[in-house]
What we know:
Layout: H1 2-19, E1 32-34, E2 40-42, E3 46-51, E4 64-71, E5 74-85, E6 90-94, E7 101-109, E8 113-115, E9 119-122
Parallel strand pairs: 2-9
Antiparallel strand pairs: 1-3, 3-6, 4-5, 4-7, 7-8, 7-9
Amino acid sequence: MKFSLFTFLAATALTVVRAIPLERRDVYTPPVLYPHDGTVWYVGQRHNVTWDTSDPPVNITNKIGRIMLRKSNLTTPLILADNFSILLGRIEVTVPWVVDGSDYQIVLFGDSGNLSPFFTIDSA
């Protein structure tokens, strides 16, 4: 009897859960506009990372953004900005103390990770 009652309740719960409509959500991947190819940042400077917000979907899965630094095709643990609206279109960051190189990228996280073109960071 208990098994039958449990089976009935589980089946009923599953039916109710299936009946609740889910809100459709879209993955939003706005392209990074700055920094771009040819950009040179110097350690300690402040820059506005910018991205295109001209055509966002109605239902964005994750509207909270994070910007991280990538070097040589590996995302570093350096968080340059965090906990901002992905719909802002720009956020100011401070260039961290890192090894000089022309193989840096910005990773813009929200729904997914969008990469900027490669750019240079110089400590001079």
